Write the structure tokens for this entry.
Amino acid sequence: MGYLSPALNVMIAAARKAARALVRDFGELENLQVSLKGPADFVSNADTRTERILVSELSKVRSGYGFLVEESGVIEGPDKSHRFIIDPLDGTTNFLHAIPHFAISIGLEREGLMQSAVVYNPITDEMYTAERGHGAYLNDKRLRVSARKNLKDSVIATGLPFLGKEGHERSLAELGGVMAVTAGVRRFGAASLDLAYVAAGRFDAYWERGLGPWDVAAGLLLVKEAQGIATDLDGGSKMLDRGDILAANEPLHPQLLKLLKEAGRKTS
Ligand code: IPD
Ligand code: CA
Ligand code: CA
């Protein structure tokens, strides 16, 4: 692991602690998946329980900070310059289907800027961390986005809003446009890990619409600290407010921004 600020240390410890219960539940789901009973009776409160653990652990050591968390929303703190932005379980559908691709995502914002990030997949024990100005890491390894320059060689990740949700048609048009000119598109189902994979150079890029701030807060800092670019789909920096994002390396970002705009224009 690279530079560990006190805050990042605390976030890593909280993620590891919260992950224990999540891993136990996942084990149970895996067993149910292959049993005759099936997982249908499994009542999941994994999100809310994980969130409770994270908020309690982080509040113990950073008592004044506020929170923006997926399940409980805004929790105000007296310290208005810091807040944690948390998705306690990103990739719920994967989790419920016993697919080992989900994560705990914790971002720390200071004065409106992302300062520290943790994205943790407890099944693979991959701990992605970043600290503003100090790089991004996967466990002990420094991360760097991919070096691919051409769309035709690139693998791009995305997520699609459900039918009837805002942005569905447009996302399908964009998908068609991207599939036509790249080596392939992947839809793995956990936005925070999609961003972590871009930071790690596994995916060359990732775009999605209709996201919550907790889906991307930590991941976008991972990408930036791995020398990548993360913007909203107009090329601006309102990813958290708008819920759309494009993350890529420097050569691919402008190409994809243009391509997505052109593909989307056909639907509007
Ligand atoms: C979802 C995942 C998924 C993305 C959805 C998100 P959740 O988060 O990140 O990849 O496509 O838009 O809502 O519900 O599993 O926390
Ligand atoms: Ca999520
Ligand atoms: Ca979630």
In short: The chain has a mean pLDDT of 93. Residues 87, 90, 191, 215 surround calcium ion (ligand 2) (CB under 6 Å).
